[in-house]
Amino acid sequence: MMPLHYELDGPAAGVPLILGPSLGTSLHLWDGVLDRLAATRRVLRFDLPGHGRSPAGPGAANTVALAGLVLELADREGFDRFHYAGVSLGGAIGARLALDHPGRVASLAMICSAARFGEPAGWKERAALVREQGTGPLLVPAAGRWFAGEPRTRLLDDLAAADAESYAACCDALAEYDVRDRLGDIAAPALIVAGRADPATPPAYARELADGIPGATLVEIPHAAHLAPADRPDAVAAALLAHLGEPDRRTAGTAVRRAVLGDAHVDRAVARTTAFTADFQDFITRYAWGEIWTRPGLDRRTRSCVTLTALTALGHHDELALHVRAALTNGLGTDEIKEVLLQAAVYCGVPAANSAFAVAQRVLDEISRGNP
How much of the chain exceeds pLDDT 90, in percent? Predict the structure, then answer.
């Protein structure tokens, strides 16, 4: 079986969080909540076999095998221990991980999921239909199950494009999945989320999970059908953030500071810290980097543009040099940095911009000489 396709978001040193999709969808199921989850966490989203951009192939006809594929991704990224959240089949994969690899799962969230997804015969019938006719006949009924609100065309397109044999194999996995007698063995802190308008895994399924998993928290979301993260992203994000807990701002700030300014700079700053400056270093790490730079409202490219303008206006040239390098790290090109400084010349004054151009040129020359 080829490795699953996956994408990473959030600071490289952030706490690992893996997000699993529902049958027939792709990692884009999580688009509506991604910014909030990835603000301070290293988020890995994956596609099921034959879904999205994952290759089709044999070897994943049960949830044990699917969990093994997810562990391969975690190992590849060095996630020794991670938080996990999954929708429907994605939630079942999470239950398998928590049961069979308890040391790896820091917490578990099962969204619109179950300990058993109905009678196996129904899944066998769907698998046979898809093997014969593809996923086309599923589009209309899926829209009714998946969404209480406006259908998301992108996710229905993912269903239409799914590889028939891979989809059928996932149906086989759902047919064999039954962890009802093992729920009491799940030791990870668990969040169970139900959509009150979910006809596929109605709230009774969620209550069975919450009653069986020791200490589990149950959240029911009104006006949410089977794909709750797409239907009610704000409510799902709020439930997940409360479950995951707010990361320590110093830890989060250190991760973002290193990602933006580079390990070498941060290591030098730490080495120069004295008893007199320690509180100030802690302040900027927690507040500037842990509170502001981690906010999801602006991406880092935009924050770099704002920062370059402010430093130009105030004439803080040492900080400006530092943030020219940071802007390059955050994805701005030299031409874009030039445009920011030209804009600053209009609104901050030509003398200020003249000095800023000189600082930026010096930094760019140093980088071209191999001094990053």
Answer: 80
